[in-house]
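note to self — DONT lose this again. spent like an hour looking for the file last time. sequence + predicted structure for the chain T wanted, 186 res
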Amino acid sequence: MDDDKIVQLFLARDEAAIRESSAKYGNYCYLIAHRILGDPDDADECVNDTWLRAWNAIPPQEPASLSLFFGKITRNLAIDRYREAHRIKRGSGERFLALDELGDLVSGSDSPEAMLQADELKADINRFLLSLPQEKRYMFILRYWYAEKIANIAVRFSMTPNHVSVILKRIRKQLKHYLQKRGYDL
């Protein structure tokens, strides 16, 4: 079933929307959750929570891309679940090393002004990523969206882990410079 029909099922409050979403995007969401959590049972629970969260969000939202919508929900739920389960000092967990690498660039704030700038920041990061060569963009996304281990990225791109680390460090430096030029206080 195509995404528009699934969204229409959600809008009509038809429970078939969850079955169709699970059939089409269940494995994708599971992969995201499992990479973050490392536990199949927790990943399954996280995916089930994704459908509930989507049910409560549509309507009023009408996502343009269901894969991104479900992926973002799953990722946020998995990160929250991981933090809850581990309750350790920020930066101590292996799975959050990737997020900590970016933490200096885009640390969060709860002020209304910062919340309003979040969409602009996302758009600027997307523009930056689109300016990168495809291989580097994929490395960046694998590391910082999917929380993939550097060793796995190295195997995927036939490089040494050290080479991947150097590339990612350079991309973070370029991103920092790009965001500073765009007026962000980092």
